[in-house]
From TrEMBL:
UniProt-recorded Gene Ontology molecular function terms: acetylesterase activity; monoacylglycerol lipase activity
InterPro entries (alphabetical): AB_hydrolase_1, AB_hydrolase_4_CS, AB_hydrolase_4_sf, AB_hydrolase_fold, ABHD4
GO biological process: medium-chain fatty acid biosynthetic process; medium-chain fatty acid catabolic process
Lineage: Eukaryota, Metazoa, Ecdysozoa, Arthropoda, Hexapoda
Pfam families found in the cross-reference section: Abhydrolase_1
All copies of domain AB hydrolase-1, residue ranges: 116-362
Organism domain of life: Eukaryota
Gene3D superfamilies assigned to the protein according to its UniProt record, in alphabetical order: alpha/beta hydrolase
Record PANTHER family: ABHYDROLASE DOMAIN-CONTAINING PROTEIN (PTHR10794), ALPHA_BETA HYDROLASE 1, ISOFORM A (PTHR10794:SF63)
Family, as annotated: Belongs to the AB hydrolase superfamily. AB hydrolase 4 family.
Keywords linked to the UniProt accession: Hydrolase, Serine esterase
Name of the protein: AB hydrolase-1 domain-containing protein
Native organism: Tetragonisca angustula
Active-site residue numbers: S196 (charge relay system), D327 (charge relay system), H356 (charge relay system)
Amino acid sequence: MLNLFEPLFDIPTAYYGALLGVGFCVYYLFEVVKTPMLVCANGPFRSFLEEHVPLVRNKFWPTLWCFESRAQTIIASILRSRILPPIHYRREILTLSDGGEVALDWAEKGCSTTSPIVIILPGLTGASQAEYIKCLVSSAKKVGIRCVIFNNRGLGGVELKTPRMYCAANSDDLSEVIEYVKKIHPHVPLAATGISMGGLILGNYLAQQGVMARGKLKGGFLISVPWNVFAATKNTEENYFNLMLNKYLASTLRKNLQRLHYSSETGMFDVDIDTILKSQTLREFDSHFTVKQFGYKDVEEYYSNATIHDKLHLIDVPLLCLSAADDPFQPLQAIPVKEISETKNVAVVVTSRGGHIGFMEGMWPVKEEQYMGKLFSQFFTALFTTGFDCQM
């Protein structure tokens, strides 16, 4: 019997390597490289995107050596943090109605006083120097769009003035920021972008405001938004690698809360800080802190309020979203494809790969302008220059 396999032993090892290489290339070309799925109801908004945003029609070529979801998520962050230089902002401290303060960081170099403005909301613990923010600001600068980064309370180097932070379901602070920017720039087109949890805040704002938002924002753009918070937390607790991402974010929240709490002699928050600092996952942190901060009965009630997959029909301004089918927080089966396909004002571009805020493309993804930045600039350039109105 062994005699049948003896000829195989005489084949040089290089041939096996070449065969594996060919197999990998075939897999990459047919299973990895795909045209993104564009989900949107037939109507003016879908036609607008197909005509004015070329990326929705082009294939997405994930980085050949790094297209696994967690690798895209982590390595994209590491590479951008080293490639993209710090952004020099003009900082403005905005005092809110309850006495709290937030930092608005303006990226406006090279822009005119009439240049359109995009408000950017970072993710869970992000601020204006986050690598994905710099990616968007770099793309905006090339097309003459001003950006203002809205740093949540206690982030961006600003200390808390009141014992209140932020959460995914509450858009009160965002509403005040939008009103302020509209007041100082009344005749300038304004839009907004939210990344991850920032996308939840923006999505909830648009759903709560409904038709009223049309008088304030030309449109919105969400990146890697966890549409269904229940599914997002479940997905990040299911296996070892996803759980490590969950625990890392929870540890960042704990450290930030600890710093803010002990910034005053008596402690900033009236909470059981020792129990909160033992939280190992996002769900535990939300149960021990966020729920109590914002008056929810339990974490289920908070997540129900924070989720936006069931609120899309309330959104009345053009909203483009970018998600990856392999996002460890919100994979394809958790993206509300059916709901979006029936919504004329909301569209989602779903790439086959990309992870969470990854979307690395090309053999060596070291360029300042990357996929999500290109989609950002194409969408907003078209939105600001064509006079598109989704109600037409």
